[in-house]
Amino acid sequence: MTPKTNTAQLPKDVLLDLQDVKVSFETREGTVTAVNGVSYKVRPGEVLGIVGESGSGKSVTVRAIMRLLAKNAIEGPKGSIRFNPNGDQTYDLHELSRDNRQIRALRGNRIGMIFQEPMTALSPVHSIGSQISRTVMLHRKSTKAEARARARDLLERVQLPNPDLMLDRFPHQLSGGMRQRAMIALALACDPSLLIADEPTTALDVTTEAQILELLKSLQAELGMAIIFITHNFGVVADIADRVAVMYLGQIVETGDVDDIFYAPKHPYTQALLQSIPRLGQKKVRRLKTIRGSVPDPYHIPSGCPFHNRCDHADAALCTQERPPLRGFDNGQEARCHFAGQLPEASL
Amino acid sequence: MLSFILRRTLWAIPTLIVVSFISFLIIQLPPGDYATAYAAELRNGGDYITEAQEEAIRTQLGLNDPVLLQYGRWIGNILFHGDFGQSFHWNAPVSDLIWDRLALTLLLSTLSLVFTWIIAIPIGVYSAQRQYSFLDYLFTVFGFLGKGIPDFLLALVLMWISFIWLNLDVGGLMSPQFEGQPLTWAKFVNILSHIWIPIVVLATGGAAGLIRVMRANMLDELGKPYVETAYAQGLSERQVVWRYPVRVALNPFISTVGWALPALFSGDVITAVVLNLPTTGPLLLQALKMQDMYLAGSFILILSVFTVIGTLISDILLAWSDPRIRYA
């Protein structure tokens, strides 16, 4: 399992590095570009929140990392997804096919993934214990008994009551929150260095959501893995993320530390999103703002800056023609807007 | 699990009582009885038979007794003596007639069922995995052809082919010279050279339908999130497909496996007649035509028992394979 020789080694403090990732889908109606040149980095042990509306390409991007794209997906000619799971060996995942041996050795082992629907994301015909121990046995070559003991450990770690009983339970016997805990145990089966959580709390009620977030935070503190946390809920991001990336129509429009994003958003889209969320202690007189129009249909993405037709600050000449460059700031914040840094402070 | 089986078994008993009574009644429903049919046959043959003689036969066979009494006598003998009564037409005990043919029928049905599954499951899985590929279309075309061609026609075509080109003598279960001989290697080979035709005929029709069912189920299952979860564990495509979605997609197969028992016991009569197979189907057909009521009644009773047992087997297998059913 030697990585490709032409893959540049990532520095020790970068776990995952995406450069210009592009994914489109060939459909009967035409080609849809779901991810259009996404680049981001994840450092070991950090929680990166990815926020965006449905169809913004957040899930497709992480599926490109996992190499689990649908079969009609086409990836851009350029682009790289470099992964450095142990700090000393870099894989370019972009080069690997869906059923490649190297990516299979990483999946479930160095990269764990939690899915949105705890109701259907676990096999209905296998017990919780056997699903977890299968992953353990696959990657650790351990015996059945060792794997089962490991599964029991994990169930205890995700705070499922009666882990010994839970081993032999089937998913349909568990509640949504319990299933999501089992799902987390499965994703952590082999102590991954990267955990991808694709809207893990969207299908849960608010109380359960809070518990699951609490659990993920404590597990992250305990085990130290990095998390890519995908959500469309800014509140959840504020709760769990260290850094945030905001996606719109297949592009990352703004990244930055969670506080900078929340208190000093530089991109008009981020500002508009934050203004559309009700906050405690807000003055009652102001109506909640909405974003004008709706998300353009993916077959006709606007030219220039894709947000220009919904933006309050758009310049008719510049924004409709030219794709804005990524503008960096001293605090590490980056925004893909022609006017980033020159816009009036949003009243939040 | 044990209480589940016990409960199901107990429920089978009242079902069987009702079914046996109704089947006996149905056989009695058409106008006339065996005496009428027998007299008509004699008259057609040119013999002379008086009304009085016909009536005497009727009395002698007990056909004038009330239906309930006749039913009681018949079912009592079955339960207490294992005696299914006498076939009027064959003038032989019903049990002799049936059990002789039963072994062969069961052998044939089991073999063709296994054959059906061996064909249908892998093709169905492949077709779903490579939906709209060339082979998927090819299998679909063959599937519809197999479903569309009547079994007896396929039987005739295969018989013709093996007679003209393969120089085999066809029809029946073995060549005439082996009939009644003890089982030797030569006889075994001879039976094999005959039995493939009915198995192929029975399996193609069944497989064609099951390929479609398997393909549709797999297409449903392959899109479900738990399949993606399985991929995300690092399992290979083959491991994922055969361990996860196939397990779930097999449910309709398992829940109908029990029906294969009665279906092959009674069904495929035409195929069996065309191929001149000594299975039970043609015997039942004849018994019904002649109003040979103890033979027909016993047949239908055995059929019902098989149906009930088959369903029971299916239920148990299904509960064993799918925990959602076991704990529901």
UniProtKB/TrEMBL annotation, chain A:
Principal location class: membrane
Domain of life assignment: Bacteria
Keyword terms: ATP-binding, Cell inner membrane, Cell membrane, Membrane, Nucleotide-binding, Translocase, Transport
GO CC terms, sorted: plasma membrane
A Pfam cross-reference name: ABC_tran
Compartments in which it is found: Cell inner membrane
Family label: Belongs to the ABC transporter superfamily.
Coiled coil: none
Membrane disposition: Peripheral membrane protein
Name of this chain's protein: Oligopeptide transport ATP-binding protein OppD
Domain ABC transporter: 16-274
A GO molecular-function annotation: ATP binding
GO terms, biological process: peptide transport; transmembrane transport
Gene3D superfamilies associated with the record: P-loop containing nucleotide triphosphate hydrolases
InterPro entries linked: AAA+_ATPase, ABC_Ni/Peptide_Import, ABC_transporter-like_ATP-bd, ABC_transporter-like_CS, Oligopep_ABC_C, P-loop_NTPase
From TrEMBL, chain B:
Signal peptide from the UniProt entry: none
Biological processes annotated in GO: transmembrane transport
Record localization: Cell membrane
Residue intervals of the ABC transmembrane type-1 domain: 102-318
Keyword Transport included in the entry's annotation: yes
Highest taxon, organism lineage: Bacteria
Keywords: Cell membrane, Membrane, Transmembrane, Transmembrane helix, Transport
Protein's membrane topology: Multi-pass membrane protein
GO cellular component, one term: plasma membrane
Chain ranges passing through the membrane: 9-29, 102-125, 137-168, 188-211, 253-275, 295-320
PROSITE patterns registered for this protein in UniProt: ABC_TM1 (PS50928)
A Pfam family per the record: BPD_transp_1_N
Family membership: Belongs to the binding-protein-dependent transport system permease family.
Protein name stated in the entry: Dipeptide transport system permease protein DppB
Protein species of origin: Flavimaricola marinus
